[in-house]
Design a protein that fits this description.
- By secondary structure, this protein is α+β, with helices and mostly antiparallel strands.
- Helices cover about 35% and strands about 20% of the residues.
- The chain folds into three domains: about 130 residues, no CATH class; about 90 residues; about 60 residues, no CATH class.
- The chain has eight helices and six strands; from the N terminus they run E-E-E-E-H-E-E-H-H-H-H-H-H-H.
- Strands 1, 2, 3, 4, 5 and 6 form a six-stranded mixed beta sheet that branches.
- The longest helix is centred in the middle third of the chain and has 30 residues.
Length: about 290
């Protein structure tokens, strides 16, 4: 029996792509990642599919671990056991009820479990109800964004500490162990200052008012003028086009990467929430830059 989850969803697209099913794309706020979820299978035996634009409570059942993430090495092959991120799983959409209120599930009528499951098997009868996942609150989203900002900034600080330490000594003066020891001390100081800024009363007050913190700085801080290279240096579509041409990657190669990541093309990738031109460049560099 697959994992069954009930949560709010917005239907973005419905395609009749097989004799037995519709393929649905939906925005599922309670699932991991800032992305829409495609290729959700709706069995035609369940009746008419939900309409595009509908917002309601959907019941999802995990089908299998996504081959893309297994092949990439993010997760091992095997049955779904709940340790995966939601985006690493292929989901069937088993039921959908419109008119549910946004937020926690108080007072909602659970969607019925369909009589006809999608996968033909000898599974035992389902006895446990679905797990309800509430939509993240504004505070949840803010905390997630701040945590992401801190992780990314701490990674920059780690790399910058190494370059800063090397800039202060003569070439060849360090062994690897000595360099890492001193760089770790400097990075720890950088990250301590970062934490102090993120936890300042001004930042907390802004977050409580619904602001999403994407950058925190001190006017007295020196500007980091370390140049960005590779995919990190790509800032817009024109630069992306020039960079791809310089790499010599064909349109077919890029299309295969995008399809493997669940996007029809680059426009579909950039239309997904949270995706950027810089993120697309980094994806291509990761998959094709060997």
């Amino acid at each position: 029996m697959g994992q069954i989850i009930e949560t709010e969803a917005t239907i973005l697209d419905v395609a009749d792509d097989a004799t037995w099913k519709y393929s649905i794309e939906a925005d599922i706020p309670a699932f991991d990642g800032e992305r829409s979820y495609k290729y959700l299978a709706w069995n035609k035996k369940q009746g008419p599919p939900p309409q595009v634009g509908a917002v309601g409570i959907a019941t999802f059942e995990s089908y299998q671990r996504a081959k893309y993430y297994v092949d990439r090495g993010d997760i091992e092959a095997g049955p779904v056991d709940g340790t995966e991120m939601h985006y690493q799983v292929v989901w069937n959409i088993m039921a959908f009820s419109t008119g549910a209120a946004s937020g926690a599930g108080g007072g909602l009528t659970p969607s019925p479990t369909p009589k006809t499951p999608l996968s033909a098997s000898q599974e035992p009868p389902r006895t446990a109800g679905p797990t309800f996942l509430a939509v993240p609150t504004a505070a949840d989203r803010s905390a997630k964004d701040i945590a992401k900002f801190r992780r990314e900034s701490e990674g920059v600080n780690d790399r910058k500490a190494v370059s800063d330490v090397l800039a202060m000594v003569e070439p060849g003066a360090y062994t690897l162990d000595g360099l890492l020891e001193d760089a770790s001390k400097l990075a720890a100081w950088y990250n301590t200052r970062l934490a102090a800024r993120c936890e300042s009363p001004l930042v907390q007050a802004a977050s409580e008012q619904g602001a999403v913190v994407t950058h925190v700085s001190n006017l007295d801080d020196p500007v980091d003028e370390e140049p960005r290279t590779g995919a990190q240096a790509v800032k817009n579509k024109a630069e992306l086009s020039d960079w791809v041409a310089e790499k010599g990657w064909s349109k077919a190669m890029i299309g295969n990467v995008l399809k493997a990541a669940g996007h029809a093309d680059s426009s579909a990738y950039l239309a997904a929430d949270g995706n950027t031109v810089n993120g697309l460049a980094e994806l291509l560099e990761q998959e094709l830059g060997w």
